[in-house]
Amino acid sequence: MSGYPLDLNDDQQQIQKWVHDFAESVMRPAASEWDEREEFPWPVVEEAAKIGLYSFDFVANAFVDPTGLLMPIVNEEMTWGDAGIGLAIMGSTLAVAGLFANGTQEQLLEWAPQCYGSPDKVQLGAFCVSEPDAGSDVSALRTRAVYDEASDTWTLNGTKTWITNGGIADVHVVVAVVEPGLGSRGQASFVVPPGTPGIRQGQKFKKMGIRASHTAEVILEDCKVPGSCLLGGKEKLDERIARAREGKRSSSQAAMATFEATRPSVGAQAIGIARAAYEYALEYAKERKAFGRSIIENQGIAFKLADMKTRIDASRLLIWRAAMMGAAKKTFESGEGSMSKLFAGETAVYVTEEAIQILGGYGYVREHPVERWHRDSKIYTIFEGTSEIQRLVIARAISGVYIK
Question: Which domain holds residue 367?
Fold first, then answer.
């Protein structure tokens, strides 16, 4: 490793190659089939589990990487292979991020491994925040959690929507309201263990892109969980609620603590799609002949590719900066996490659209994968906070003004 601060170390390079090889040899050949089937790609996830790629041990090591770069690196290579399958493999990580952000060490060690299971019995995790009337506005959540002190149980009621692995997961991490008058400061996260009565899948959504990733409603009807399933514990919750009632600032909020931890990695997923489209368009432009020469010899094509590459690299630098800041526990004073996700998501849409334009009619048909990559890219300007919400976060951070 040289002295350049953005060089990857030997371990990171080896893991990057390992994930890339899996993406190239297993994910890409299966991508079109599972996109068409719009089903969870169990066989591919099981293959990932067999080699240790889908496992709590691997994710835990990635989370504690002192540079913060390993998780973005892995996510980029995954979605370079295929975004839908990549999300099927990485979707449980969002539940684990919720456990990391809000749970105790004991809760993390108990529940995170159950989000993955074993190579012989693959399990899934799901993180449940969004609701039919509360997407970007997490302060408007209506799912309630009511505590019964006599039995030390919480009863959850409500409907969650747009949930990755929703309803088919073994472990659901659910954000619910415990103190309605306090907005997002009155929320807490709960683990709903496997086999708990009162939780079920609602509507499964048929999507424009990332079709191999399962997205559905999760319905909670008098779903009872023991007090030990409150992430962080009752004492910590009571202290936080007391501070909120007194008007004191809360150090964390159940949903936002998770999003802050995952936005750079989500941005990295967007860049994986963009990189795939750029590389494909570049090779096509070198090989495609028109008017007696390769189309890349025309400025109209060459300049597109130059802009595509520039935006991809700029996005990656924003992502890596945010990831390194997160690992160093530095405050995102200018909304750096949101900057990385915003720019990467919009770059993915831009790059995949330009790739289609370079391929012309061939880019519009399923014979070539760029049309799928374009469909997959759009979600990255929507989930984990829309582009508009990211701009709001950034604007508030740089101005110090509560912009609405």
Answer: 254-399
